[in-house]
Every structure is written in structure tokens, then in C-alpha cells.
């Protein structure tokens, strides 16, 4: 199976060298666990390797705010942004006004830029805008087929926490499910990453230590 390196140190050791290509991965966890950072770190890693990347934000946060936040990490490259190796697209307006147009906007940008790696952050905003489970399931089904046909590794972030993600419709439909969490152990908060699902992959199971530093995310597969 062809794979694409995640760009997250330690994670590829857990998943036989990278994400299956093409595939759809869902990244979930509570606020502050590092979902957006993981997705963007992977996107910048791909861009450094020569890939075209596409970041689609579905929340009302200006692109410059996101880039300012990213500038604190070592994986961020202003040159990659300026040369448009990563394209930032805000679909918040469509989400609020006419969510049925979201798929058309996604297709337009994918066909224009031909990315190999795509991030939609968060998919939860689109789910809420579409209103009901049946409509969202159809949207997600169409999205998955389209992205795979276009030859993309797509990372979807979700705002659901550890207890809710595994039972969500998203988790059943996607190819991979990665959960980030933080637990209070010995009066200290520690972050963890767990691969709950990855089709066609003999992945390591159980929570593994996750470190977020100035360089970005790093998984320590040997530490539980």
C-alpha cells in the first residue's frame, strides 16, 4: 500500500510509515490537545517535500490570525505561504449562509490547486450547519469519494472529545481515527495520542505520550 508520511515525529512508527494514500483521517480531541497543530504540521511537512497543500477553515478566524499562531512553531515557513505551496481558504461564510454550497467550494479549490494533502478544520462546523445526520452522512460520503478520486490525503479535525468521537458517524466512515487527549496524572496534565483505527494498517494501540514544543508535535511511541 502506498503511504504518505505524516510529518509528525514518532507517529509514522505507529502506522507502518504513514497515512495510506489516498485516505481520509479524522483527528479528534478536547480543546487544547493539538488537533489543528497536528493537521497543519502535516500540511507544512508535505509542502517542504514539494507537495501542494490546501487548508480549509470552517470557523470565523481570519487567515492572518492562524498564520500568526503558526509562526510560533519551527515547522512554519513564511516562504511556503508566500509561494502558495499551501493555500488557505475560509468557508465560514458559506457555512453560515448556504451550507449546501460547501461541496462546490471544496471541489472548485481542489480542482484549481490539485493538492496532495488537504485539511478541513473543523468538520464539526460543517456538520452543525447541515443540520441533520442523514444530510451530513451524504455530504461526508460524497466528500470521501471525491477526495480519494482526486488523490488526496485528507485530515478532518473534529471538536468532539475522547468519549464522543468513537461513536460519531464520522468515525465509522473515515479510514483512520486519531484521538488526542490530556489526562491528569500525579497532579500534572499529560498529553497523549492514540490511533483507534487505520484501515489496512497494523498500527500500535493504546495511548502514547505526546509532546508539544516550539518545534510542534512529537509522539513518543515507547511511552504510554
Topology:
Blueprint: E1 3-4, H1 11-14, E2 19-20, E3 23-29, H2 35-48, E4 53-57, H3 63-70, H4 78-82, E5 86-90, H5 92-97, H6 102-113, E6 117-121, H7 123-130, H8 133-149, E7 153-158, H9 169-173, E8 176-185, E9 188-198, E10 208-213, E11 216-220
Parallel strand pairs: 3-7, 3-8, 4-5, 4-6, 6-7
Antiparallel strand pairs: 1-2, 8-9, 9-10, 10-11
Structural description of this entry:
This protein is of the alpha/beta class. It has helices at 11-14, 35-48, 63-70, 78-82, 92-97, 102-113, 123-130, 133-149, 169-173, and strands spanning 3-4, 19-20, 23-29, 53-57, 86-90, 117-121, 153-158, 176-185, 188-198, 208-213, 216-220. It has one domain (23-181): P-loop containing nucleotide triphosphate hydrolases (Rossmann fold), CATH 3.40.50. The protein contains nine helices and eleven strands. Strand 10 and strand 11 form a beta hairpin. The two termini are 28 Å apart.
Defining key terms:
224 residues; Rossmann fold; 9-stranded mixed sheet; two-stranded antiparallel sheet; 9 helices; globular
Average residue-wise pLDDT: 92
The CATH architecture is 3-Layer(aba) Sandwich
- In total, how many domains does the architecture comprise? 1
> What is the top-level CATH class?
Alpha Beta
Strand order across the biggest sheet? 5-4-6-7-3-8-9-10-11
Rg on CA atoms, Å:
16 Å
Low-confidence stretches: none
Total of helices = 9
Structural class call reads alpha/beta
- Strand fraction band? 25-35%
CATH topology: Rossmann fold
The largest β sheet comes out as: 9 strands, mixed
Note the gap between the termini.
28 Å
Per the principal axes of the C-alpha atoms, what is the gross shape? globular
The name of the CATH superfamily reads P-loop containing nucleotide triphosphate hydrolases
The strand count comes to: 11
Helix content: 25-40%
Amino acid at each position: 500500500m502506498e503511504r504518505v508520511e505524516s510529518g509528525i515525529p514518532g507517529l509514522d512508527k505507529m502506522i507502518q510509515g504513514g497515512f495510506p494514500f489516498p485516505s481520509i483521517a479524522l483527528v479528534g480531541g478536547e480543546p487544547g490537545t493539538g488537533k489543528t497543530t497536528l493537521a497543519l504540521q502535516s500540511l507544512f511537512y508535505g509542502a517542504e517535500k514539494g507537495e501542494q497543500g490546501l487548508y480549509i477553515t470552517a470557523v470565523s478566524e481570519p487567515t492572518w490570525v492562524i498564520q500568526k499562531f503558526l509562526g510560533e512553531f519551527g515547522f512554519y515557513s513564511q516562504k511556503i505561504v508566500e509561494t502558495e505551496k499551501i493555500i488557505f481558504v475560509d468557508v465560514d461564510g458559506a457555512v453560515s449562509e448556504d451550507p449546501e454550497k460547501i461541496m462546490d467550494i471544496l471541489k472548485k479549490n481542489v480542482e484549481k490547486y490539485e493538492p496532495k494533502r488537504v485539511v478541513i478544520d473543523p468538520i464539526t462546523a460543517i456538520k452543525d450547519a447541515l443540520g441533520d445526520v442523514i444530510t451530513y452522512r451524504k455530504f461526508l460520503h460524497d466528500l470521501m469519494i471525491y477526495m480519494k478520486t482526486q488523490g488526496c490525503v485528507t485530515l478532518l479535525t473534529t471538536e468532539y472529545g475522547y468519549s464522543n468521537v468513537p461513536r460519531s458517524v464520522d468515525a465509522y466512515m473515515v479510514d483512520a481515527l486519531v484521538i488526542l487527549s490530556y489526562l491528569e496524572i500525579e497532579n500534572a496534565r499529560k498529553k497523549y495520542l492514540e490511533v483507534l483505527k487505520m484501515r489496512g494498517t497494523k498500527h500500535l494501540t493504546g495511548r502514547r505520550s505526546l509532546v508539544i514544543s516550539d518545534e510542534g508535535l512529537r509522539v513518543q511511541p515507547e511511552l504510554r
